């Protein structure tokens, strides 16, 4: 779709949906109407390896501007990621090794282009300019801002006033990110509302250095699956781009009803008119929220896995969670594979030769990837989120050990299952 073919109404929708603020809006609209190709800056700090649909709110907006003919410039923050963005953090974040950042960046790049058009994206690495920085360059950059200006940032000021640790390297983060805008001559920078301070520093630095200052496009933040806190990997409330289809579908179906409209607005491309109609139906109690969740889940799974897979995920959800059957596909482990987790009735490791015996579930679930830590596995068990739903040992898991045998199916949380099989079953599957 060319810029010339865009109707005024469509542009206004793009400028309003999910948008908190455009600074300054009149200047941005003037640049948009000029007919020139705008350079749209978006930076990613590869501090963690996964992108989630909270990131997707911004990426889908970038894609719309690409379709209008504008140039997205993706900046891989291989320098700032080593510092760690302190936004919203009450403590100093640990610095990452360059090798870890590079590995994360490769994963980010693959996931970024699930949404944004690769052919219409210019990829830049901060190391292109910061590798050449000298100490004199850093001092000259820092000299353009005062401590008072930097302490206007809420999280910095809060920590400073509370006499909590605030590293000097953290104060450099917004300055380095701002310099990215100078390095690529950005016309517009996109970010979430938690990034507003950083975005405005970029605008200010450009003006200081003789460039036309960028406009700032501030997007709303998507709540996590708890419907309360912002979606963040550290909070364990994400729906990731590369989650399995059934997991994505199930996570959407577990959303609180209060989050549905925000998800429809921020995480889908459903027309505004349709979203408004669904909002009215929910408010008037003329639609079952479960039906809205199914529609939302289908839209999200389709974005990353296609319509056919979304239909399969819907059918699987109905089978497992509405008809209370076990999934057709799940992780399987040979009984012999888990023998090292066998324990006696006092929880001590044992090598008893039996096809049905007690197993140390916290360590088993962690080591097999069903919990992020042994502690998390114990919490899941304590919360009643771990059950043996089929086969030997069937029933609720009450303690740290449970009886398992060939044919046991363990359910972890709402969406993850594992089955214990023997060698003959594995060979025939």
Please write out the topology.
Elements: H1 8-16, E1 19-23, H2 25-33, E2 39-44, H3 53-67, E3 71-76, H4 80-83, H5 98-112, E4 121-125, H6 127-130, H7 135-142, H8 147-150, H9 154-161, H10 168-184, E5 188-192, H11 196-208, E6 215-219, H12 245-253, H13 260-267, H14 272-283, H15 289-305, H16 307-322, E7 331-334, E8 342-343, E9 356-360, H17 361-367, H18 374-382, E10 386-390, E11 395-396, E12 401-405, E13 409-412, E14 416-421, H19 423-428
Parallel strand pairs: 2-3, 2-5, 3-4, 5-6, 7-14
Antiparallel strand pairs: 1-6, 8-9, 9-12, 10-11, 10-13, 13-14
Helix pairs in contact: 10-11, 12-15, 12-16, 13-15, 15-16, 17-18
Record keyword descriptors for this entry.
five-stranded mixed β-sheet, alpha/beta, Rossmann fold, globular, 429 residues, Structural Genomics Hypothetical 15.5 Kd Protein In mrcA-pckA Intergenic Region, Chain A, single chain
Give a brief outline of the structure.
The chain is of the alpha/beta class and 429 residues long. The protein is 44% helix and 15% strand.
The main pleated sheet reads as: 6 strands, mixed
Number of domains: 3
Structure class? alpha/beta
Q: Helical residue percent?
A: 40-55%
User: Mean pLDDT across all residues, rounded?
Assistant: 84
The total count of strands amounts to: 14
**What is the C-alpha radius of gyration, as a whole number of Å?**
25 Å
The fraction of residues assigned to DSSP E strands is 15-25%
CATH architecture of the largest domain: 3-Layer(aba) Sandwich
Cross-sheet strand order for the largest sheet: 1-6-5-2-3-4
CATH fold-level name of the largest domain: Rossmann fold
């Amino acid at each position: 779709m060319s810029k010339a073919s865009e109707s005024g109404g469509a542009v206004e929708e793009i400028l309003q949906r999910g948008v908190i603020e455009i600074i300054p809006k009149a200047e941005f609209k003037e640049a948009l109407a000029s007919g020139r190709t705008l350079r749209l800056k978006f930076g990613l700090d590869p501090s963690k390896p996964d992108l989630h649909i909270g990131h997707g709110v911004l990426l889908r907006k970038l894609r719309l501007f690409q379709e209008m003919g504008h140039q997205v410039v993706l900046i891989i923050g291989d320098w700032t990621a080593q510092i760690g963005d302190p936004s919203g953090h009450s403590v100093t974040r640990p610095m990452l090794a360059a090798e870890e950042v590079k590995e994360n960046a490769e994963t980010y790049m693959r996931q970024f282009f699930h949404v944004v058009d690769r052919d219409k994206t210019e990829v830049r690495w901060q190391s292109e300019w910061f590798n050449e920085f000298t100490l004199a360059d850093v001092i000259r950059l820092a000299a353009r801002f005062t401590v008072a200006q930097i302490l206007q940032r809420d999280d910095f000021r809060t920590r400073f006033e509370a006499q909590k640790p605030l590293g000097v390297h953290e104060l450099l983060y917004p300055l380095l990110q701002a310099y990215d805008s100078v390095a690529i001559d950005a016309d517009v920078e996109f970010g979430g509302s938690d990034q507003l301070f950083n975005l405005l520093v970029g605008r200010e630095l450009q003006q200081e250095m003789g460039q036309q200052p960028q406009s700032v496009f501030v997007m709303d933040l998507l709540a996590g699956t708890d419907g309360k806190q912002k979606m963040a990997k550290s909070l364990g409330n994400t729906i990731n781009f590369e989650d399995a289809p059934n997991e994505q579908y199930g996570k959407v179906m577990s959303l609180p009803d209060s989050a549905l409209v925000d998800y429809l607005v921020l995480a889908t491309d459903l027309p505004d008119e349709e979203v408004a109609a669904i909002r009215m139906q929910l408010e008037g109690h003329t639609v079952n929220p479960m039906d809205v969740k199914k529609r939302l889940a289908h839209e999200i799974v389709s974005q990353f896995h296609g319509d056919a897979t979304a239909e399969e995920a819907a059918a699987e959800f109905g089978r497992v969670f509405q008809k209370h059957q076990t999934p057709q596909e799940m992780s399987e482990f040979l009984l012999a594979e888990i023998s090292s987790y066998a324990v006696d009735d006092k929880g001590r490791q044992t090598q008893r030769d039996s096809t049905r015996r007690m197993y140390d579930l916290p360590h088993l679930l962690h080591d097999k990837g069903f919990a992020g830590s042994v502690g998390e596995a114990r919490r899941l068990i304590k919360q009643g989120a771990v059950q043996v739903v089929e086969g030997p040992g069937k029933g609720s898991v009450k303690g740290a050990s449970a009886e398992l045998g060939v044919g046991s199916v363990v359910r972890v949380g709402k969406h993850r299952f594992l089955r214990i099989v023997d060698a003959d079953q594995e060979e025939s599957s």
